[in-house]
Amino acid sequence: MRKIILLFHISLDGFVAGPNGEMDWIKLDDEMFDLVNTFTEKADTALYGRKTYQMMDSYWTTAADKPNATKHDIEHSHWYNKVNKVVLSKTMHSNGSNKTIFISDNILNEILNFKNQQGKDILVFGSPTAAHFLMENNLIDDYWLFINPIILGQGIPLFTPIKNKINLKLLTTKVFLCDVTGLNYTVDR
Questions:
Q1: Is CATH 3.90.215.10 what the domain over 19-179 is classified as, yes or no?
Q2: Eight-class DSSP state of 68
Q3: Disulfide: which of 23, 28, 79, 128 matches 40 by Cβ 3.0-4.6 Å?
Q4: pLDDT in tens, 154-185
């Protein structure tokens, strides 16, 4: 069975974006990018909600071609263009790409189908609404939370009420040079 790994930047008070979707408070560094590359090397599928997919697709499709592209931009763009993308959306439908699958109905069974297929890990970058659905249905296997040193006070939360608690086991902590703390949890089933 494939693992679903959630990777999220969050504020100390648990928000993934400001009230209007602002993410200008997120801190990044090369060490963090190198860590993310270890995940992408072990993954062949990315799972997104509609809004995050549109944002990612508009940037990563051509990021490697830009004259000022960084090493990370080039590596992640190459990964993004070859990886399978699963998009949870009630409004978007096939765009003709054989690398992108849109799911609007029977979401739980469709995701379980992807988890049970042969293949590498499935990564979830961003996409708080998709993350809420995955958490509610206990479909996430590992969490990587990048805690940014800021209290937003309001915004889009990573965590929303769920029916059943999810027990986690801390595997790793990592403090990055940019003052972000990475916490890696696995679900303790």
A1: no
A2: T
A3: 79
A4: 999 999 999 999 999 999 999 999 999 999 99
